[in-house]
Design goal:
Length: about 70
């Protein structure tokens, strides 16, 4: 991180500064064996179902479609 900050690359400076602000989270992601892949997959599936009914359905139909989908 110090080498990146010493170079003249503002875009990378922003990345490093963000990583420093969230250093505990970055460390946890890299050091634990847990993955959020399953959760992200469900979020993606839910967004797809929501987009398919956009403007045509209300929350009740969305709830039924999410709960009945495989």
């Amino acid at each position: 991180m110090e080498r990146v900050l010493a170079d003249d690359m503002p875009a990378l400076h922003s990345l490093v500064n963000g990583m420093k602000r969230e250093l505990d989270a970055v460390t946890a992601v890299l050091s634990t064996r847990w993955s959020s892949g399953q959760v992200e997959g469900q979020v993606t599936r839910t967004k797809l179902i929501k987009r398919m009914g956009y403007g045509r359905a209300n929350i009740d139909l969305l709830r039924r479609r999410i709960l009945s989908s495989p």
